[in-house]
Structures are given as structure tokens and as C-alpha cells.
Amino acid sequence: MKHIVSGIQPTGSLNLGTYLGSIKNFVKLQDTYTDHHFLLFIADLHAITIPREKAFLRKTIKELSALYLAAGLKKERLSLFIQSEIEAHSQMAYLLQCFTYMGELERMTQFKEKAQKQEKGVTAGLFTYPSLMAGDILLYDAEYVPVGDDQKQHLELTRDLAERVNNRFDDFFTVPKPLIPEVGARIMSLTEPNKKMSKSDENVKSRILLLDDENIIRKRIMSAVTDSDQTIRFDKENKPGISNLMTIMSAITNQSIETIEASYKDATYQTFKQSVADVVVNELAPIKARYNALINSKELDAFLDEGAEYARKIAMKKVMKFNHKIGLGRKRK
Question: Looking at residue 121, what is its pLDDT?
């Protein structure tokens, strides 16, 4: 069985950028890669590289699980599971650390950015988590990994590690290939359109969360930072705000940027923002309704149990084979 693998950290409620750049793209990929089984996991081991409150972490793990299912993924070709429930992820992470060079980890942009935000107490887990991420992928011999622009560096390290191991142990790992969506891969902040929309941004007006009320969604889009030109055209350098709103509309409606430009060439910014708000509200309404039905249901727990069982069988088999390749443990007759 060929696999496509992706995960998300439970560090806060999902925002529109993550939905359009990752989850909605996953729905499209299921229609395109019909001979692949999709593995989605809640990356809670990644989340604890920075201190988290226990109650917050548990709540967010459950919330993200329900939102994944509510987003329209085809359940019959999906295994959804929680990373920490599959012991092989921790085991593979350590094994791959033994093949990862310090210099490679020191070059990781996300580590440097996160470490700069912490004045003290930078953990070894934060430093080595790219090895854990590589294990998340290589455990399942993933053929493809959907990634945004900010994750390409980590996937390159994963590919390097796979090739390093393969050179020593006769093509043991599948070298994964990236899947980067053409539109919607990078949704920007509504208040600072030159940086990515983030659930951790201190300015709540910078983002839209999937579970936000309609009034909040409309207010934040209407107040999104634009420019004084009042011409609706795509120009990320000179018009980042309006270009970001056009990207959001394109990612939701599947209209090309050129089509949107032509449709709104005589419109005001206010009119265009109202249209973007309508599109976003209509997109998120059924997701929120399905989420509310799932969040406290037995259906959600049963699906997570099924996903864990599927993943555990594959992952444990792979890590045991890797142990054997390396020479760990006893040789069985």
C-alpha cells in the first residue's frame, strides 16, 4: 500500500491558513491520488518541545482530531491517529538521531526562530525534533508528504537521512517526495501580510480560526490591512494585503487569480472584502456544524482507535526491521 503522510501540532485551534494550505489540500489530494492511503496524525510529541499546559494539550488534541474529520476527508482511505499513541515514533526518532549531524540540526530555520523567542530553557527536544519528524515520515515509507514552504527544509533533511541510511543498508527507506499546492500553500497574516498567518500571533486580528463566529470572521476580513491603491490585482511585493485576500478566495473557490482579477477589476476594496468574507463564512459553516456533532461522540474515539491500530502495525514492523539492520538486540533463529 502506498502512503501519503502528514501531521499537525496541537498547539492551538486551527486557523484558515493551515486549513487552506494543508487540510483542504489533503481533501483534493484524496481525489487525485486514488491509489494511496492517507495517514494523518496529531503531532503531540512535537508540541512538547516547548512547555504546554496538560489540560490545554489534551483539549487541543481532541479538537484537531474532530476538525480533521469535519473537513471532508474520505474516511475509507484515511487513518487518523495521535502520534504519542504509536511508540515506534519515539523509537525511530532516537535511531535517526544517530544518523543526523549536529550541523544539520543547527541550520534548521525553525529551530533558530523558536530558540530566539525563548530567553532560557531551550530544550534538546526542540533541537532534535527534525529527526522525530523524519521518523514520522520514514516509518510508513511515505511516497509523498504535503508540505508548505516553511516545511521544505525539514523534508530535505528527511530525504538526506533516508539516502544516508539507504547507502549503508541497501535502500531500507523510501525517499519521500514533496507535494506543494500551487495556491493556498502560504496564507498570510491579515494585519501583517508579509508574514505567515499563525495561531501563535499575539494579535488575534491577524488570523481567522476555523471555529470563529461569523461576525468575527467578517470583522477581521473587513479590517484586513491593504493599501491605498484601490486596484484589485495580484502583486505580492507591492500589494501583499490584497494579494493575500485574493489567494484566500482562489484557494476556496478554485478560481484562478486571473479570473478573480477580471471579476473585480471595477470593484472597490470594500466590495471585494465583503465577497471574500462571504466565501470564507460559507466554507467554514458546514465544517463547524460537523465538528459540533463529532467533538464528544463515540464515532471520533472509534476512528482514532482504528487509525492507531493501522499505524501501529506498520510502524512497529518498520522500527523492528531497522533495529535488526543496525544490529540491535539478539539475533533470532
Answer: 72
Q: Which of 199, 205, 219, 325 is catalytic?
A: 199
Amino acid identity of 185?
A: A
Annotated catalytic residue 321 = no
154: pLDDT confidence band, cut at 50, 70 and 90? confident
Looking at residue 177, what is its pLDDT?
94
HSE at residue 301, side-chain half, CA atoms within 13 A, is 3
Which of 24, 62, 196, 318 is the catalytic position? 196
Closest CA to 56 of 13, 104, 8, 101: 13
SS3 72: coil
240-257 per-position pLDDT tens digit? 999 999 999 999 998 999
Of 165, 141, 166, 154, the residue nearest 4 (C-alpha): 141
State yes or no: is 24 an active-site residue: no
Cell of 44: 503531540
Domains in the chain, CATH or no CATH each: 2-180+298-326 (3.40.50.620), 204-292 (1.10.240.10)
Residue 35 and residue 128: Cα distance in Å, rounded?
33
Given the residues 2, 54, 62, 114, the one annotated as active site:
114
Contact 156, 171 (CB under 8 A): no
How many Cβ atoms are within 10 Å of 36's Cβ, its own excluded? 18
Judge whether 196 counts as a catalytic residue.
yes
Alpha helices in the chain (DSSP H): 16-18, 24-32, 44-47, 54-70, 88-97, 102-106, 109-117, 124-138, 152-169, 214-222, 240-253, 257-263, 269-294, 298-326
Total length of the chain: 333
Q: What Rg value do the Cα atoms of the chain yield, rounded? A: 21
